Amino acid sequence: MVEQLRAPPEPVDRAPAARVSAADCGLLLLRITFGLLLAGHGCQKLFGIFGGEGLTATGKVFAALGYHPGTLYAAIGGASEFLGGIGLALGLFTPLAAAALIGVMINAMVTVAAANGLWVTQGGLEYNICIAVTALALAAIGPGRLALDRPFRWGKGGWREAAFALCVGGITAGLALSL
Q1: Which of 18-22, 25-29, 74-78, 126-130 has the lowest average pLDDT?
Q2: Phi/psi at 149 (5° precision)
Q3: C-alpha distances out from residue 162 to 15, 83, 155, Å
């Protein structure tokens, strides 16, 4: 009778510790390389380092492209590249980081590259498309297990995260182009 009143023993969780896969390491390598290079590209605009011209000179280029005030738009573009790149490198707010880069690349495609065809050797779309598609793919796939986003829902990637990145990037690009 006493045996019947006892609760059954709790099951022991013997799930093996998750291992870091080659895919996780590959995503980390992609995020760090891609993210830090884009962050560096933003630093060229913002701070004039890594061979960049800095904010004042970049602002004049933006003004010549029709963005007024040019320095403000140069700061927004440079900050988007810098923060978006850092976000992807760390795997932090990945869909938002991807959206920042997608938005900047849409603007670059519309204002500079589209008139020059596809290939970057003629100043075309190739480079901008590669950046935008890579950022979108990282939002869709997710940053991997070796990312600061891992505990959050958006850290897993998916259709919703990719749609967010594409829509927010497109909307912000559209706003910048219309002002």
Answers
A1: 18-22
A2: -75, -10
A3: 31, 18, 12
Record the tokens describing residue 82, joined without a space: 């810098």
Angle in degrees, CA 169, 175, 176, rounded to 5? 90
In contact, 110 and 179? CB cutoff 8 Å: no
Supply the pTM of this predicted model: 0.87
Residue range 20-49, pLDDT digits in tens: 899 999 999 999 999 999 999 999 999 999
The DSSP annotation for 122-161 comes to: GT-SHHHHHHHHHHHHHHHH---SSSTTTTSGGGG--HHH
| Residue the block writes with tokens 């700061």 | 75
Measured distance CA(34)–CA(85) in Å, rounded: 7
